[in-house]
# Entry
Amino acid sequence: MLVNKVEICGVNTSKLPVLKGSHMRTLFESMQKGDTSARTQLISGNLRLVLSVIQRFNNRGEYVDDLFQVGCIGLMKAIDNFDLSQNVKFSTYAVPMIIGEIRRYLRDNNPIRVSRSLRDVAYKALQVRDSLVNKYSREPSINEIANVLKIPREEIVFALDAIQEPVSLFEPVYHDGGDTIFVMDQIHDDKNLDQSWLEDIAIKDALRKLNNREKLILTLRFYEGKTQMEVAEEIGISQAQVSRLEKAALGHMRKFM
# Structure
């Protein structure tokens, strides 16, 4: 995506107008009386909201023009459904609508396949969510959505999670002018803890102090997963000798570690 692109979909973003609150209200009142030109002015006067939202999707690999067009659809839906009687700023109401429209677009173009039944539940939940946002001018809870659909809360959470677009491990989540924090920096990995890393070093150091036969037996047994019988056949000794040498080697390693 070209973050600093000036012209998007034929619109010169550097010259977009900014509407003041009082003028916005006047335009909404005119639009709701049937003035189509007022609606056009509201759209062009709020395109900066779309620009601010699509910056959040910089790393999705999508064309900025496509995201801008989808965001404009969300903006128009917000304009058409905005309730002046509610004591809410238009931007507060519109931004979630724009984000929701872009997320739906990304989900529909997601290469990861999700079952039809899950997608149906998720889309029903999103439709209810949008209707509740329109009704209450706030983000509804999962419980409120579940009550409307008469579906268990857990099923809705599972369905919504299933249609989430994948996130790159290298997507930045915070930047303060210094080192950038990426998604991968916030993921816990039980397999690569410092303790495990230190234990691996200690094991390798202890192995170096064993004689060649002990080293070979432990390598075949614990790195290649062979049985004592298989090890015995490979190096030409009895299973009893393998067992005895294995125990002795492990005892030596415990002392070294």
